[in-house]
Specification:
alpha+beta, 2 helices, 39% helix
Length: 66
């Protein structure tokens, strides 16, 4: 899935999706002002998306606790 970028009330929403090797899908959105979006390099946005995905993976793969 390609990123979906929406402009809503002066803010930018970047909807993205990533899948694991075993076909679990993570879907999320980054929100920022238009000025922040314009000033943020695409590599930084990619890093932000990857960090969220990695954090999600850590949560779903964490061993159960009592």
């Amino acid at each position: 899935m390609e990123d979906i970028i929406n402009q809503i009330d002066g803010r930018v929403q970047i909807i993205f999706e990533k899948s694991t090797d075993d076909n679990q899908t993570y879907r999320d959105a980054l929100w920022m002002t238009q000025a922040e979006y314009d000033a943020t390099p695409s590599a930084t946005i990619d890093e932000m998306k990857q960090t969220r995905f990695d954090n999600w993976l850590a949560i779903i793969n964490a061993p159960p606790t009592e």
